[in-house]
Queue: 3 jobs
Job 1
Amino acid sequence: MTTKLSVNVNKVAVLRNSRGGHDPDVLGAAQACLEAGADGITVHPRPDRRHVVAEDLPPLAALTARFGVELNIEGNPFAPARTGYPGLLALCEQVRPAQVTLVPDSDGQLTSDHGFSFQDDTTALSAHIAAFAALGCRVSLFVDAGVTGLERAAAMGAHRIELYTGPYAEAFAAGDAGDALRLCADTARRAQAVGLGVNAGHDLSQANLGMFLQAVPDVLEVSIGHALIGEALYDGLDATVRAYLAITGGH
């Protein structure tokens, strides 16, 4: 099957914000990725406004609509609104992304490094899922490989999970990815058995993506940003996106 590639452009915004102004242009980078054939754009507007910010979202939504592809907005639904950040639900009400990926990251966290647990009280999470679904968004939950209670995630109304692939990437780099791959594959199969689609993301790269997709069944979408933007510094966005699409089966 073909796995869709959603390019995360947060790192372009990090570079822009480090200097101020508008360069490099996040919208221009996203357009270059879509012109190369990417299936969507992912952003994670954090409350600290460290990279993509609320003001970036309307033009990105218009761009993805023009290309007929998905906008995927990541974020923590529990993070309170504050100056410059109206909250994840308010952002999604404004631009109505095709998909929202809920992530349990904390304020100031460098990057997402763990997923939701479904063993404790999930009442509040269930209410958030319903609110995003009511906007017409597909709701994906960021989870660790090996997570239990996926039937509860399905019962709450989630449509997909996103496997946190950081541990797999670390194991791959160390030369022994077997156990991590088996855990990801088992989690994917258990999710699919209860009706959840499977996405994946975090530290995936051209080096490790092929092995992951061969081992983990029916991955619908991968979200890739850090490695892809880093590789594009050498080869350019167009060539880098096309290289990923050759791995995912997109082109």
Job 2
Amino acid sequence: MVPLYNPAIEGPEEARSCIDQFEFPNIPCEYPVVWVRAVEAALLCRAVGKRLCDAHEWEGACAGSLEPPDYPFDLAKGVGPGEAVHRMQKAHNQKYGTKKAWSYGPEFKKGICAMSSRKSPGCGGGEWAKCGSNTFPAGSFPDCRSSLWVYDLHGNAAEHMNLPLNEGQMASQGSVELGYTEMKGSWFIFDTYRAHEDWCRWRAPFWHGSRVMDPKSHLNYHLGFRCCKTLGRE
């Protein structure tokens, strides 16, 4: 794991949390685990003494600077989870939209990350029997890393994260009650087909939205995860 911190104001020894350097199982040269539900990702992280990351932690790992949590919880009050995520996403993306960056630099580039693969022949909407993971071994693209030395944040597998809709759902603050699903990063096909935005601090719509711990939370052939750990608490 590597420390999460803001290099402008602190050093790595002052980090309060860490993140897996590679996608789970966090082993270089191994393929990332996919076809895993958000609830399974959370339980697997817990089983190895870690936890699912909050969205802002993944974003900080990608952008090379962990900033304070940015969740406009006031926008989530009095509305359903789908509308709450929509409002919070819009506000967040407007705030950071003028400062777009990728883990490897300020502009999107092809050929840097694990994005040159293709769907398995016959793969349509994500059928188990027809869609392989089509991923690369972790760390196969050495330039696809952030300044905090976190790899494959773009390409390979997309990643489950925890999106809190109130302070009581923040894993980074010690909460065991997780919030809603957030899919981070891009995946293996983006060199030829950019399915959505994938800059570091971009937050997705309420795609396949559910509580993280919902037993029917989303899974897909290009969706994996990585874990975080709170220092001095877990």
Job 3
Amino acid sequence: MKPRFLKVMITSAVLGFGATGAMAAECVAPANPGGGWDFTCRQIGKIMFDIGAVDKPVQVTNMAGGGGGLAFNHVVAERNEDADLIVAASTATSTRLAQNAYAGMTADQVRFVGAIGIDPGVIVVAADSPHKNLADLLNAVVADPKSVTFAGGSAVGGFDHMKPLMLLQRAGLTDITKVKYIGLDGGGDAITQTIGGFTQAMTGDMSEIVGFLKAGDIRVLAVLTDERVAGFEDIPTAVEQGFDVVAGNWRGLYIPRGVSDETFDMWAGRLQKVADSDEWKEAMAANGLAPFTKVGDEFQGYIDNLIVEIRQMSKDIGVIQ
């Protein structure tokens, strides 16, 4: 078996009880603990074990770097035939691939096995921010783009970066290249920067901010959905505030390209079992996720189309040529 770890800072944790055996499944979260990819690995992995979809606890490995590029390269170069490996993915993953941000690597070098929830986009400020609503924040940027720095869990040009750019276009900003954005390794790092006052706003996903919201550390200015999210009905949508942007982040998995069709179908089946479980429904409700279930070949086809759409959208907003 090829080496399982690169010489990078990696944090691992075991989900469930007891030690894992040599053949226990591993879920790589391509970011530091606390963000959306970390949430995907830990929640899906835990539920897989709890409902008996796997017979050993799933090990989670955090492998931050390059907006997911380090983990993607690791899978392609080192783990291409590893049937026990799953990797957390999201709209951010497809965005980076659409923009050729993984150093020439392409989506067809892995197999996208499924997504079982969609994480609504959010725009967040610290609880003591002077910006009381979305218009306050966007108008401040339009008036002086240097006055606001956004932090996000994706790299520059990634999906977190796109969210405020789309909003600001609708607010009347004509030169989106002036928008200040810092890409960090995961939403947990991004929201910490905003709470600490190092950035003025955070662009991310609902699952990344629930704990901070409950603690009273932040104010959510908008959720980027058509309608308010169940369980978080006090958070207004951007649409109802006059900014027609809907941006959801699906939560799912990819696996190495070199595994068999039987392995692909096995992981698709396991993911479907999680999607059908009461445990996952509870996890979605607790973390602000909306239902979104596509597994197996249906999801792979969805990804192929999504990458085409994101590439065009990236051109439309000037992120790529």
